[in-house]
Amino acid sequence: MKKITDIKGSFKLHNGVNMPYFGLGVYLSKNDHEVVDAVQWALDAGYRHIDTASIYKNEEGVGKAIRRSSIPRKDIFVVSKVWNSDQGYESTLKAFDESLNRLELDYLDLYLIHWPVTGKYIETWKALEKLYKEKRIRAIGVSNFMQHHLENLMNNSEIKPMVNQMEFHPHLVQQDLIDFCNQNEIQYEAWSPMMQGKIFELSILDDLAKKYHKTVAQIVLRWNLQKGVITIPKSAKQHRIISNADLFDFELSKEDVNYIDSLDKNERTGPDPDNFNF
Questions:
Q1: Closest among 171, 206, 204 to 190, alpha carbons compared
Q2: Labelling 256: which of 98, 104, 107, 239 has CA 20 to 30 A away?
Q3: Active-site residue, 56 included
Q4: b/e burial code for range 117-155 (CB count within 10 A of at least 16 → b)
Q5: Which of 188, 234, 229 is nearest to 56 (CA)?
Q6: End-to-end Cα separation, the chain, in angstroms
Q7: pLDDT digit string (tens) for 5-23?
Q8: What is the CA radius of gyration of the chain?
Q9: How many whole angstroms separate alpha carbon 173 and alpha carbon 228?
Q10: What's the rounded Cα separation, in Å, for the pair 25 and 3?
């Protein structure tokens, strides 16, 4: 198991960059005081990893909160993603510049291909490789890539992805994909770790919450980390942002990690990467 210490702890990517294993997702947070407040609350609570995307339409607010913070820029791991309609070599370079301008930052810590658009993601990746070599991004990766997408990408590129951000929760474990990523030094990361709120309907997790004197959310997020999976729970509420990060004073037993694994149903709350309407 990778070492989990505190909210500022990190996992090392294959290029040597340390990526904080716990962060804030800002999907659906409005590009006004809502996202600015959420990012500021998260940074105040010790978060050092903020995940946005061009399609979230809130990069300006994220950038504003980062600039207002007393935390030095170099200590905040900022992630964005290139959207499907911007994929392709030249259009990705342009989309990256536009994201950076909206964020008003000089560089990104991680830039991801948001979805594997057939016929385009190889060229998109070549653009990410160029930006990486120019040191405009500290790490590059993908999101929603299944094993066959990763194999195709690695067979047609110079640099293998450092990260694969996937839907990941007790009903969608995809252990074979996690194993493949681990074998290839591709860091696995979770989006929608709370199943878009549906984990709270799983009464089966209530017993574990009682056993560890924690919330269901804290149990699931701790399970993410103990699986070696980076996690970025989304919230715009201050108390939830603080509560989600209260994960570092307990450890799930191996049996309980395996028990949560056993809840897997290969059930998605989001789109299927193999059948997504790009």
A1: 171
A2: 239
A3: yes
A4: beebbbbbbbbbebbbeeebbbbbbbbbbbeebbebbee
A5: 234
A6: 36
A7: 999 999 999 999 999 999 9
A8: 18
A9: 12
A10: 22
- Are 105 and 136 in contact, with CB atoms under 8 Å apart? no
What's the mean per-residue pLDDT of the chain?
Answer: 96
CB 26 within 8 A of CB 62: yes
Cβ atoms within 10 A of the Cβ of 3, count? 8
Q: Residue holding tokens 């715009």?
A: 236
Q: Which of 21, 27, 47, 56 is catalytic?
A: 56
To which residue do tokens 């991004």 refer? Answer: 137
Which fold would CATH assign to domain 10-261? TIM Barrel (3.20.20)
Q: What is the pLDDT of residue 276?
A: 84
pLDDT, tens digit (0-9, with 9 covering 90-100), for 165-212: 999 999 999 999 999 999 999 999 999 999 999 999 999 899 999 999
- Rounded Cα distance, 130 and 88, in Å: 13
Residue 272 to residue 125: CA distance in whole angstroms: 21
Alpha carbon distances (Å) from 149 to 14, 51, 164, 181, 192 = 19, 22, 11, 12, 21
Residue 95: closest CA among 125, 131, 123, 54: 54
- DSSP 3-state assignment of 50? strand
Provide the CA 87 distance to its chain's centre, in angstroms. 20
Specify whether the backbone of 226 is left (phi greater than 0), alpha (psi in -120 to 50) or beta: alpha
